[in-house]
């Protein structure tokens, strides 16, 4: 009995050892095949990357297939600078077409030896104000040869500024045309209807007209009931020649009135905030702006807003 049991145990042990060896062999074969598979994929990926890098070099003509973050930022910055330069060139071209001339360009280049004017003075007047105009001519503006002398000696052009009647060609227009033929001292804005409520737009048109017709250091707006000391005005302007963006006058602010029946009613009162206070600006009786600011008004006249009062409009 013991002999038969021993034989059974030996037979069972031999079967277990044989099974273990077969399992080990199978696992080894599987591991070897897996290693070959992974190695093959890695080799193929490396080949693909090498091919793509060479193809990129061939198509771009660059020897560096990797673009760093710094390189990308430099390219973006360069493109932004090119855009800004192109925009500035377009603005400069537009400004030149509108009559802008840099102050760095000599005034007496070539055969042009004409002296630059100190100021163009626009005296704002209206229909029915002939007595005011006559008083201004007698007091400080003068007429005829004396008016021409102011241009030559003082470098100042002085003109009354007026628009046209709402009924174009009526007696009001004819009277102004007749007065102008005698005195020759008007700027007549044919595209502007003469009305008190349109004075802000009239002032803006005067500045544009003056810049287009006269090359001056300053452009001055005066009401026709103001008496000007030409020598004192010239001294003030001369003392500000070094300021390329000068805005000269009696500076003030003031309350914005929202009541429609008020004399100084501002229809756009809500645009000035809860404080209802105007921005700081020169009083409308007389003020001056330098050539650079006048050219700015000329170039941007189509988009510059006007308010109920011409002095606030000029200040804005």
UniProtKB/TrEMBL annotation:
It is a single-pass type II membrane protein. Pfam families: DUF4094 (PF13334), Galactosyl_T (PF01762). GO terms for molecular function: galactosyltransferase activity. Pathway: Protein modification; protein glycosylation. Belongs to the glycosyltransferase 31 family. Its cofactor is Mn(2+). It comes from Escallonia rubra. The lineage of its organism: Eukaryota, Viridiplantae, Streptophyta, Embryophyta, Tracheophyta. Coiled coil: none annotated. Residues 21-97 form the DUF4094 domain. Its EC number is 2.4.1.-. Keywords: Glycosyltransferase, Golgi apparatus, Manganese, Membrane, Signal-anchor, Transferase, Transmembrane, Transmembrane helix. This is Hexosyltransferase. It is found in: Golgi apparatus membrane. Its main location: Golgi. One of its GO terms (cellular component) is Golgi membrane. InterPro entries: DUF4094 (IPR025298), Glyco_trans_31 (IPR002659).
């Amino acid at each position: 009995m013991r002999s038969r049991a021993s034989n059974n145990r030996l037979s069972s042990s031999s079967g277990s050892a044989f099974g273990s060896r077969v399992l080990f062999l199978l696992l080894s074969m599987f591991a070897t095949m897996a290693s070959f598979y992974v190695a093959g994929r890695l080799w193929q990926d490396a080949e693909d990357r090498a091919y793509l890098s060479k193809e990129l070099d061939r198509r771009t003509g660059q020897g560096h297939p990797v673009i760093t973050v710094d390189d990308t930022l430099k390219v973006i910055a360069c493109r932004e600078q090119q855009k800004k330069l192109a925009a500035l060139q377009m603005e400069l071209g537009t400004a030149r077409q509108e009559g802008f001339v840099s102050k760095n360009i000599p005034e007496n280049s070539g055969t042009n030896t004409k002296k630059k004017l100190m100021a163009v003075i626009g005296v704002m007047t209206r229909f029915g104000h002939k007595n005011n105009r006559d008083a201004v001519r007698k007091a400080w503006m003068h007429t005829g040869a004396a008016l021409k002398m102011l241009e030559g000696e003082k470098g100042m052009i002085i003109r009354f500024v007026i628009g046209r009647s709402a009924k174009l060609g009526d007696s009001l227009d004819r009277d102004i045309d007749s007065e102008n033929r005698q005195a020759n001292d008007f700027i007549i804005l044919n595209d502007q209807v003469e009305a008190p409520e349109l004075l802000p737009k009239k002032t803006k048109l005067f500045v544009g007209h003056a810049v287009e017709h006269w090359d001056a250091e300053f452009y001055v707006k005066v009401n026709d009931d103001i008496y000007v000391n030409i020598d004192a005005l010239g001294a003030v302007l001369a003392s500000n020649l070094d300021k390329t963006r000068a805005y000269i006058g009696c500076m003030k602010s003031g309350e914005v009135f929202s009541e429609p029946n008020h004399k100084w009613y501002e229809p756009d009162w809500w645009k000035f905030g809860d404080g209802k206070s105007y921005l700081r600006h020169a009083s409308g009786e007389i003020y001056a702006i330098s050539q650079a600011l006048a050219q700015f008004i000329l170039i941007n006249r189509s988009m510059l807003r006007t308010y109920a009062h011409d002095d606030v409009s000029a200040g804005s």
